[in-house]
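Regression check, D-xylitol-5-phosphate case 214:
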Amino acid sequence: MEKKLKQVDFAEKICPSIFASDFSIIKDEIKKIEDFGCKIIHLDVMDGNFVPNISFGPKITSDILNVTNLIADLHLMVSNPSFFIDKFLFDKIKYITFHLEALNSEEDIFNLINKIKKINRKVGISIKPKTDVSKIEKYLKELDLVLVMSVEPGFSGQKLIEDSLIKIDYLDIYRKKNDLRFLIQVDGGINFENAKSIIEKGADLIVIGSAFFK
Ligand code: DX5
Ligand code: ZN
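Current build output:
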């Protein structure tokens, strides 16, 4: 019984990235996510500018969300997140995460945080592997989620960059010390072998793409 409960716990921490699925059998892929016991579907939106790849837009997102009861987290890998947010106002999208590197000023970042809060969504900021984690510190008080990228954003199927995991420790210590509640999510190169150790380091949610669907 205890073992079973632990497995449920584990499944609820996994956010499968639908970008890595086979879109020709999308309904079956979504069912895999539900059957595994996951609660959150991870939506990777790429604009071909912030990252050198293009994924999908609001039409496909809406079709996906129409055939599931899962909630979704939107990972915006785009240069103009404010523009994109307005196109993805679907009820099931509960978390909206943008990249710290996409914006130029502190003021723009706080404005975007407030915009997301105003539309009643949880707000997340993501940082790329080469971005110093201390750069996010001044925003942590306002956040529901921090997304630590463990690969360069843009593609599924890359190898995890071990050094990026140090940021989990830093964020976990920081939130305990300051009594903050943001979730730590890790994305990129995660599989069923390394997932548990990443959770043990303090990650609350992990994104799994290719390893989940293949
Ligand atoms: C990468 C995306 C990831 C990706 C994960 O830019 O943000 O969510 O789809 O895929 P894997 O798990 O294959 O690295
Ligand atoms: Zn992602």
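Comparison notes: The longest strand covers residues 40-46. The chain has a mean pLDDT of 96. No diff flagged against the previous build.
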